[in-house]
Amino acid sequence: MTTRLHRRQFLFLGMGSIATVLAGGAVVRSMQSSSRGSRPAGAARLSSSAGELELDLVAEARAGTIPGGPAKVLTYNGRSPGPLLEVNPGDRVLIHLQNRLNQPTNLHFHGLHIPPTGSADNVFLHVAPGGSTTYDFTIPSNHQAGLFYLHPHQHGVSADQVFGGLAGTLIVRGALDRIPEMAAASEHVLVLKDFASGSGNPGSAMGMGRMLGREGPLLTVNGALNPELSIASGGLLRLRLLNASNARIYRLALEGHTMQLIATDGGAIAKPELLEELLLAPGERADVLVQGNQRVGSYSLQALPSQPSGHMGMGAMGSPAGSGSTLATLRYSGAVKPLALPMALIPVPEMPAPERTRRFVMGHAMGGMGSHGMGMGFQINGASFDPNRIDTRVELGSTEDWVIVNNDVMDHPFHLHTNSFQIVNSSEQRPAPRAWKDTILLRAGQEATIRVSFQDFPGRTVYHCHNLDHEDLGLMGVLQIDGKPS
Ligand code: C2O
Ligand code: CU
Ligand code: CU
Fold first, then answer.
1. Which CATH number fits domain 5-178: 3.90.600.10, 1.10.3430.10, 1.10.10.60, 2.60.40.420?
2. What predicted TM-score, i.e. pTM, was given to this entire model?
3. SS (H, E, C) 358-407
4. What is the pLDDT of residues 125-168, one digit of tens each?
5. Residues whose beta carbon lies within 6 Å of some atom of ligand 1
């Protein structure tokens, strides 16, 4: 049965900008207003006001509170996941990151279309233990509405820090949220994250654990085990899902219900697409609508057993066996006049024709020396990550097709910083709608072609596997976007 949350925990879940009515009848809106003006370190949610969002973000180990979970969890402002940030296009964002960990860290704004340089989304910045730095950037006025992902990107320890608990979310509001049917829905951000059990070693795993990518047996949603979500009969629930796990691929289904996909990583699609289940690789986001059109009762949001790659069953290790695990429970409560699904969302423009095509082959060399000397090296086009080498140079203003090939026996979710792309060809069976993506799962042996335009921001950025153990072990390349800012 459902683990009932006490009120405090439940408040973290009800993160809608539209007032989310709790089971107890309270309304979350009060959380928002209390966070205005001051910068309370413990707030679960911080929204910009008067065109600015400024906050302190403290990275720190705290005693773990997940039943059966690790003794220590890495937190932002004492939370895992950290506070939900909410901004509008045109807003300035100032984040004062304080590193109270015992190793260097930094921040990456996964999916945000902002400069990869200076004090913006610059993953080449490092904050020493005890140090601090300020991230300062402006959300472009034409930025897509969407859910974005804050996480550390300190090469070599990214996986340790993310697996340990560091993650945060940032919502950019926009046209999608103003569609009347969307505005009428109750919104919840669901951060999906697996944790090691208390008996497991939460520290830096070695050998095969890192090679496969660490997965933990405790499947949490917003840091809780099996939290409850309420839906009214006739109501509409908007679930904004983020896979903030290190390596786990989620195959999600909602018992008794279908889902309507409305947005992918980088923003809305043109119209809702019916889904029976949803595959979400690390770093990916999906926004779905659920209609409260079933018999009153409780239904589980399930993580079904992920289909492992055909070879050697790798990638399935650590996954719970059997019919699936319950991540959260949807409980009917109350009734409203039936809310309709939106007919149309936001058109996704066709990309300009590509000027050139490149090929990126992901794999690993057994017995080769990785950058960590552990007898394995993950590579793109035969090279492991070197921050001082530029692997790919593109022109500002150009459009390219990138053929991403997974030549490996393991799954690799490929991720590109700074610019979202569209998938133009993939070995997947189902044709997908045109959509903005920044992460694409390539199962062992698969390949796909993505199309990306480098329109706005020159500078040095990266692409990598979002199984963060693989990234730390070298599956990352440096992209230089050449040109002058306009
Ligand atoms: Cu979410 Cu470079 O990563
Ligand atoms: Cu990223
Ligand atoms: Cu990988």
1. 2.60.40.420
2. 0.89
3. EEEEEEEEECCCCCCCCCEEEEECCECCCCCCCCEEEECCCEEEEEEEEC
4. 999 999 999 999 999 999 999 999 999 999 999 999 999 999 99
5. 108, 110, 149, 151, 153, 283, 415, 417, 462, 464, 466
